Fold this protein.
Amino acid sequence: MAQRKKGAAGRAGAQGRGAAAGAETIERESAASFPASDPPAWTPVTRIGAPAPRSARSASASAPRRRSRALDLRLKRVYEPAAADDGIRILVDRLWPRGLTKAEAAVDRWLRDLAPSTELRRWFGHDPARWEKFQRDYAEELKGRQDLLDSVRSLARRGRVTLLFAARDERHNDAVALRQILLA
């Protein structure tokens, strides 16, 4: 313990005695230039490199930090066999896939509430000409389901998540749109 204090004091001296002397000079000058009844509006520096008091830190420092780990989200047709590297398999269709048993699907979770509304799904009808508007409308619907989106993001930060869909069109379906929303 004594060596540690000695080392820290040695480093402070090695960083420059001029900096410590400069802080003392600022304190003396500020005290001399203001009368005792009118103290300075700022707090004199007593130690260089000291953290600012909690009340002086910016609001962004106290805001919750975003996790920097990337989301591991995959897409897969539910009719394809499950693989060991699928991670958590989440079905994101409103309707259960035709002709598939629960055992064959190997679904870990079925989040129907993340699927597009019945009206939007029927309107879209997997028509590529309607894809752009479908994506916008679907994103608008999901704004009210932020808690479900956050839970899927949380799972994807911890490990791989495979979003399952039943559509034949692998480029224009709700799982593709959902993945883009989750990654945004």
